[in-house]
């Protein structure tokens, strides 16, 4: 793998592990990891407003399950990408694109990952 792909995998790992971790914490404890003090204590990130606008309660069990399932699927995609499955580049690209809603963390790392995957695919990597 090229260094572009390794960095893309690292970005994917950060986001996917966070999805699984935060979703699992939310399912077990009842709520996501949020700041304990300060101006944003107990508040979810900007992503919560986005999912609310499409009719999903960000603190619902369904949303918590989406976090966990999406994170686990993405982890599986990372494994097959590292193992060079033929379809895995496209799966990584789709997984990165699907993380863009998760403002700001998923958006920033998703854009980086997409750019690096495209660079590596173009042969410049």
Question: How would you summarize what this structure contains?
Answer:
The chain is mainly alpha-helical and about 120 residues long. The chain has five helices and no strands.
Explain this structure to me?
By secondary structure, the protein is mainly alpha-helical. The chain has one domain (3-34, 41-122). The protein contains five helices and no strands. It has helices at residues 3-29, 47-53, 61-82, 88-98, 105-122. Helix 1 (3-29) runs antiparallel to helix 3 and helix 3 (61-82) packs antiparallel against helix 4. It is elongated.
Secondary structure topology:
Layout: H1 3-29, H2 47-53, H3 61-82, H4 88-98, H5 105-122
Helix pairs in contact: 1-3, 1-5, 3-4, 4-5
Q: Let me know the number of strands.
A: 0
Kindly report how far apart the N and C termini lie.
9 Å
Question: Could you report the average pLDDT, rounded to the nearest whole number?
Answer: 94
Number of domains: 1
Q: How much helicity do the residues have?
A: 55-70%
Radius of gyration: 15 Å
Structural class: mainly alpha
The amount of beta strand, in percent, is under 5%
Which tags fit this structure?
mainly alpha, 5 helices, about 70% helix, elongated
């Amino acid at each position: 793998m090229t260094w572009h792909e390794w960095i893309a995998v690292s970005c994917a790992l950060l986001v996917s592990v966070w999805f699984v971790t935060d979703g699992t914490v939310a399912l077990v404890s009842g709520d996501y990891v949020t700041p304990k003090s300060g101006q944003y204590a107990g508040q979810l990130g900007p992503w919560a407003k986005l999912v609310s606008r499409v009719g999903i309660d960000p603190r619902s069990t369904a949303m918590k399950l989406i976090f966990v399932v999406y994170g686990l699927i993405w982890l599986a995609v990372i494994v097959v990408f590292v193992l060079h499955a033929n379809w895995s580049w496209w799966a990584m690209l789709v997984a990165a694109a699907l993380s863009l809603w998760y403002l700001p963390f998923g958006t920033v790392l998703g854009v980086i990952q997409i750019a690096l995957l495209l660079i590596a695919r173009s042969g410049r990597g």
